[in-house]
Design a protein that fits this description.
Strand content: 35-45%
CATH architecture of the largest domain: Beta Barrel
Number of strands: 21
CATH topology of the largest domain: OB fold (Dihydrolipoamide Acetyltransferase, E2P)
CATH superfamily of the largest domain: RNA polymerase II/Efflux pump adaptor protein, barrel-sandwich hybrid domain
Oligomer: single chain
Shape: elongated
Structural class: alpha+beta
Order of helices and strands: HEEEEEEHHEEEEEEEEEEEEEEE
Largest sheet: 6 strands, antiparallel, barrel
Helix content: 25-40%
CATH class of the largest domain: Mainly Beta
Number of domains: 4
Length: 347
């Protein structure tokens, strides 16, 4: 019985020692797994340093607009007697599109001409009356008044003549009629009535850019434009204009930016207001050493480093100098070489 009791005690002690050993081993392994310099094959991911082209891009939302938009109005009120276009019609440059009643304007011109002749006659009568006497200040004022009356008569006649010439509305651009405030002849209109014409060949892509990004762009900088209505088509473009003044009514300071839209738009495929985006290449580096952004770490001092796999179990903390950054990758200028094994630690 004593022998059995001693055996049981030794067995219990052995089991306790084994449990303690297993716990210690487990803690050691757990500590190793938590140690970032130890490679955890279950959680860590190995990536190779690649040599490739990397670009830093800026993507801006925007829409299609046009540079040639003509809002045409008559200079004077009158009766609209002829409208030669309707919404959707194409017009040529310098084509007449509407006209006012000229009869009343002609009568007004005749009246002004008669006034001119009357004032001219009075002018000469006054000149004849005082030609042989000494011109005093009073006489000079009389002569000046007749001269002014004659000048005003000439001006009024010219204004009436201009009104006749301006009674026909002519388009200064070739394009498409997009709106007519008063499309029906016979209505009396005011100078606020508008005919709007847009040249579809003058379309461009416009967007807005934050003030912080303005120093990073310039006119002529290359870009790629995509319009949502045509998702499978992209256009090689460039910046053509950056506004000097901010866009009014925005909560932050943003500036209008325009991009070339190299399309033939005779079929009106690209219409004003169509949404899309423009991608600007801010930086590009060919033959660059590149790693995923996920592999990059920073220490308590803000210095950048990566974990490099040196053998089956151990990792080396390697500080690096950075270059061009894209949405998913970053260039390494110093600290790594091509095909180095870099480890992404699971956070």
């Amino acid at each position: 019985m004593k022998f059995i009791s001693k055996f049981k005690n030794k067995l219990i002690i052995g089991i306790i020692i084994l449990v303690i050993a297993l716990i210690s081993y487990s803690r050691i392994q757990s500590n190793k797994a938590k140690d970032p310099s130890f490679f955890n094959s279950k959680e860590d991911t190995i990536v190779k340093v690649e040599t490739k082209t990397i670009k830093s891009d800026l993507t801006l939302a925007g829409s299609v607009s046009a540079s040639e938009i003509a809002s045409l109005r008559f200079q004077n009120p009158g009766k609209l007697v002829w409208v030669g276009v309707k919404v959707g019609d194409r017009v040529k440059k310098w084509q007449s599109i509407a006209s006012l009643d000229k009869e009343q304007l002609r009568k007004s011109l005749q009246t002004q001409y008669n006034n001119y002749k009357t004032n001219l006659s009075q002018f000469w009568d006054t000149q004849d009356s005082y030609k042989d006497i000494i011109v005093t200040d009073t006489i000079q004022r009389i002569l000046d008044r007749t001269q002014n009356s004659l000048d005003n008569a000439v001006i009024n006649y010219e204004i009436s003549d201009m009104a006749i010439k301006e009674s026909s509305l002519v388009s200064p651009i070739a394009g498409v009629v997009v709106s007519i405030d008063n499309p029906i002849a016979g209505a009396n209109i005011t100078p606020t009535s508008t005919f709007t014409i847009i040249n579809p060949e003058s379309v461009y892509f416009k967007s807005e850019i934050d003030q912080e990004e303005v120093p990073n762009i310039s006119v002529g900088q290359v870009a790629t434009v995509r319009v949502d209505a045509f998702p499978d088509i992209s256009f090689d473009s460039e910046i053509t204009y950056i506004s000097f003044v901010p866009v009014a009514g925005q909560s932050s300071t943003v500036y209008e930016i325009r991009f070339k839209l190299p399309v033939e738009n005779k079929d009106l495929n690209y219409r004003l207001g169509m949404n899309g985006d423009a991608q600007i290449t801010l930086q590009q580096q060919d033959e660059a050493l590149v790693i995923p952004l996920d592999a990059l770490n920073s220490d308590e001092n803000g210095k950048n480093f990566v974990w490099v796999k040196t053998d089956d179990k151990n990792l080396t903390k390697t500080y690096v100098t950075l270059g061009v950054e894209s949405d998913t990758e970053i260039q390494i200028l110093e600290g790594l070489k091509s095909n180095d094994s870099v480890v992404i630690k699971k956070i």
